[in-house]
Amino acid sequence: MEIRHFRRKINYITISSCDTGSHTGCQITEPTIDMAKQRTEKKQITRQKILLASMELFHTNGFDATSYAQIAKHAGVGYGTVYSHYPTKESMLLEQMQMLMQQQIQALIEQDRGARSHLEHALYLGSHAWSMVSMLPSRLVSVYMAHRWMCEKPDFIDSNRQRDKLLAIIGTHFEHAQTEGDLSADINIPLHIFIMDACYIKATQAGRFCVEDRERAKAAFDQQMRYMLGLNSPKTTLAP
What we know:
Layout: E1 2-7, E2 12-18, E3 27-29, H1 35-61, H2 68-75, H3 79-85, H4 89-109, H5 118-128, H6 131-135, H7 138-147, H8 153-180, H9 189-206, H10 211-228
Helix pairs in contact: 1-2, 1-4, 2-3, 4-7, 4-8, 5-8, 8-9, 9-10
């Protein structure tokens, strides 16, 4: 009777109770721990710790004043570990912003209409899609806008997919509003959804420097949305 144990770098199996030169009666015991999966999960946890630590420090100390050493200490990892996950501070910020945007848009998508009419809810969703940007420190928004094109293609596509999903939901509420008579039938909804998206990007750009700029840009965005839908007068320009 011979018992042989085979261990591999990532996985292992145990072959026991085998006759010499024969596999008759062999029992194969599958591994209880998938080492590759364990390492991947550990890496993801470490990355998340770094991301959360940098997010806290960017808000507390400011983006420019936060160093890699501070992030490493706050996350409880080595300096080299931080650098291996994020070669630049901008890459940390980009991932933070993408994550926050996706979470915020998903929350809006799941928002119940409640007592709001379809028109009111459409305007509510359009207005609150801006709220996450308005709550962030202006320097973080400025850095994000400058480096947003550096993100990986899958993240960029996924972020746009979420935004497009929200815009489609807003469009559906506009269609219901037309059916109910709350919105003019002359309104070209696909065109106005496209313009809404463009105005959102413009408002984000205009409001990235300071709180006052953001408040002014947000007010302009809200009023422009209502004007497009024939609800009141526009605010066509941003005061310097």
